Amino acid sequence: MIKKLLFLSVIAIAITSCSKPQDPFEIGKRYIGLLTDSTQVKDLKLAFPEDSITSIVKAISFSSSSSQIEIYSNTGEKLLTLTATRPNDSTATIKTVKIESPLYKTTNGINKKSTFKDIKDNFKINKIDNLIGNVVVSVKEINAAFTIDKTELPAELRFDNTQTIDQLQIPGKAKIKYFMLHW
């Protein structure tokens, strides 16, 4: 019995020691590095132990406000902007994450410096929204919305935000302005 217990303990230690550590810059469907869709605001320091965390409260209307949490590296580079599910509540979870730094990349290698071709080659595009100055390319696979500035598009697509834009109309070399994850 003791031999079996010792054997199982050795196996458990071997399995846990072989698991690879989480890449702090990897983006998946429900996580970014150590930040997950269930991380509470009060626990952000655990997910970003070496980074600076600042909170900004913006008044949207008389009845509500929005609080954004910005994450900066120890060198001062802006990494992420987070929005909580409830403003000014330390037990709230994160509902959106804006990727500010090219250090963060999906498991397919897509980051802020990628192009529309990179998105198209690696993900199934679910929807393209035509906004005033941008197009937003939605990818459900990782709950992401990639924003591309309309200056990256042909002239005939830049000024009419009522027009439906097909992915074939977006040049492959169009750069990502930024992207967001929605949980």
Features:
alpha+beta; 2 domains; two-stranded parallel sheet; 4 helices; globular; disordered N terminus
Mind sketching the topology for me?
Layout: H1 2-18, E1 26-27, E2 31-32, E3 35-36, H2 44-47, E4 52-59, E5 65-72, E6 78-84, E7 94-99, E8 105-106, H3 116-122, E9 127-130, E10 134-139, E11 144-149, H4 155-158, E12 178-182
Parallel strand pairs: 1-8
Antiparallel strand pairs: 2-3, 4-5, 5-6, 6-7, 7-12, 9-10, 10-11, 11-12
Overview of this structure, please?
This protein is α+β, with helices and mostly antiparallel strands. It folds into two domains: 22-102, no CATH class; 108-183, no CATH class. The protein has four helices and twelve strands. The chain has an eight-stranded antiparallel β-sheet, with no helix packed on it. Strands 1-8 form a two-stranded parallel sheet. A two-stranded antiparallel ribbon has the order 2-3. The longest helix has 17 residues, at 2-18. The radius of gyration is 20 Å and the shape is globular.
Q: In what order do the strands lie side by side in the largest sheet?
A: 4-5-6-7-12-11-10-9
What is the straight-line distance between the termini? 47 Å
Biggest β-sheet strands, sense, barrel: 8 strands, antiparallel
Helix count from the secondary structure assignment: 4
Look at the structure and give the mean pLDDT. Answer: 87
The number of domains is: 2
Helix content: 10-25%
The H-and-E topology, N to C, reads as HEEEHEEEEEHEEEHE
**Structural class computed from helices and strand pairing:** alpha+beta
| Low confidence ranges | 3-8
- Beta-strand level of the residues, as a percent range? 25-35%
